[in-house]
Design brief:
The structure is a homodimer. The first copy, chain A, is an alpha+beta fold. Helices cover 45% and strands 19% of the residues of chain A. Chain A has helices spanning 8-22, 29-36, 40-52, 70-81, 84-99, 142-148, 153-162, 176-189, 231-251; strands spanning 56-58, 65-67, 102-109, 112-119, 135-137, 192-195, 202-210, 216-225. The first copy, chain A, has a 6-stranded antiparallel sheet, with helices on both faces. In chain A, strands 1-2 form a two-stranded antiparallel sheet. In chain A, a hairpin with a 6-residue loop joins strand 1 (56-58) and strand 2 (65-67). At the A-B interface, helix 1, helix 3 and helix 4 of A face helix 1, helix 3 and helix 4 of B. Chain A binds a DNA duplex through residues 5, 7-9, 28-30, 38-42, 44-45, 48, 63.
Chain lengths: 259, 259
DNA sequence: AAACACTATTCCGTAATACGAAACATGGAG
DNA sequence: CTCCATGTTTCGTATTACGGAATAGTGTTT
């Protein structure tokens, strides 16, 4: 409306499509007409057009219109083509140069995180992590906590129940209460710390890559031996890390951690 | 053009949108213009319109256009409203555990079935199927036959006429007579087999989820490589499959396949 | 059973809308 | 620096989508 360069019929068609997608049991021409303020015949014409393409379905008996599965098909194409690794590559490499430490990209799968990409720093990289495809539970890693901080509490609770929680090191959080407090802290700060919770002698700072809903399945971390990871160092890593995550999130069409 | 009631700008916009969804790394205006035969300024105008709504994303630096996440959002609305998926979730997961194979839920739409949910088994899952939103004709899939077996012959006949029947594999049934015989067998047994009719090397057993009238629009299948799908194996899958379908049917307020 | 009320669908004259040629930026290559 | 290629904006035009009104189709009331 206010927007200048917009094709009227397209705009109207998308209004209709969005209404149909959100309605549970479909809508009639009349209903759509009332809701959008468009003339009945206009609604009818636009819907017919979308019907022939499968974006909308018309119940022949009742003339109730619903969203068609074609949209889901397109959505699945998009998902398939979302090559996170590819889109994360450049931001990760820059983060690696800026920090001179090892950078990891992980994705959540079931109750674990899986390492899917890594950039190693110039200086004595910590070798222990490294293997692409390696898994760790969500609950005992910085990246896992960063991801879970974007999930609703109910889902985190379910996951906690399903997880076989055990102390990987003396620092691992094993109480659900303490874990929820920790997630609160992550949400407040915008990043998560792994303070030898997964592996002794290794500290890392991690941040999530949220999708368009603000929910994350991916995260990035910067890891280093504890000797190089003072609190001051972490404070200085925060900025570059969040910048990189925001870049990746945008490249994936998602939202950002910070405005 | 050939189609009667279709809004030109809409049709063109969807052409563009579909191309973008299928392209891995986005496309330029020029590419889209060449592909569709539309004038570049027309492409530009339509894309701008879709950009403001989030259906398309424009990389500011390179002016490469990609499909936006808005489509995924709409798709998720549709999925949320399809509560079949929700009601089928637990029975399908149990069926997956019991059989240790890939389980699919499909719905009929027009002359096709659409995959709407999937549970992958622990062992070497067959990846080829999988894409949620993917379509196949009713006539050449086990799930399709299971659904059609609940329809009156007249409707099956109409559908057969409207379908562009062709052999997907050497095993696909392409004669209407043979097809009706096959449906008789499905009705007698209570389940359908897909014996490499859709994809070579893959066998599956499928059963319908009938509504209160006994008519089905949904079906569930268990698929596996032919090596794991002997006749004995199929006999042993029958029980768990039918049980799962009955559970889902009851959850949806429908009738049951068996007493 | 007939008339009614309501909604979807089709028709068609009109002008607003989307179109596309061409001019104008922009940016990369040689 | 110039050229070339590609994206962006402008603007006059007629094609296209619009919407009022007529029609068909459904279910409901008296």
């Amino acid at each position: 409306m206010a927007e200048s360069s917009s094709v009227q019929s397209l705009d109207r068609a998308f209004d209709l499509l969005e209404l149909l997608c959100k309605s549970r049991n479909g809508m009639t021409i009349g209903g759509l007409s009332a809701e959008t303020g468009l003339h009945k015949s206009t609604v009818h014409r636009l819907l017919s057009s979308m019907c022939t393409r499968g974006y909308v379905q018309r119940d022949a008996a009742t003339s109730i219109y619903r969203a068609g599965m074609r949209l889901c098909e397109l959505s699945s194409y998009i998902m398939d083509n979302l090559d996170v690794v590819e889109r994360a590559r450049l931001p990760m490499e820059r983060l690696g140069r800026e920090t001179d430490e090892t950078v990891h990209l992980v994705m959540q799968e079931e109750r674990d995180i899986v390492y899917i990409h890594k950039v190693e720093s110039g200086r004595g990289a910590i070798r222990m992590f490294s293997r692409i495809g390696m898994r760790r539970p969500l609950y005992c890693t910085g990246v896992g906590k960063a991801i879970l901080a974007t999930w609703p509490d109910s889902e985190v609770h379910t996951l906690w129940q399903e997880s076989d929680v055990k102390p990987w090191t003396a620092h691992t959080i094993v109480s659900e209460d303490a874990f929820f407090h920790e997630l609160e802290r992550v949400r407040r700060l915008g990043y998560a710390l792994d303070d030898e919770e997964n592996e002794l002698g290794v500290r890392c700072i991690a941040a999530a890559i949220p999708d368009y809903r603000g929910r994350a399945s991916y995260a990035v971390s910067v890891s280093a031996p504890i000797s190089r990871m003072s609190d001051e160092r972490i404070a200085s890593l925060r900025g570059p890390l969040l910048t990189a995550c925001d870049e990746i999130a945008v490249a994936l069409g998602g939202s950002m951690n910070r405005g």
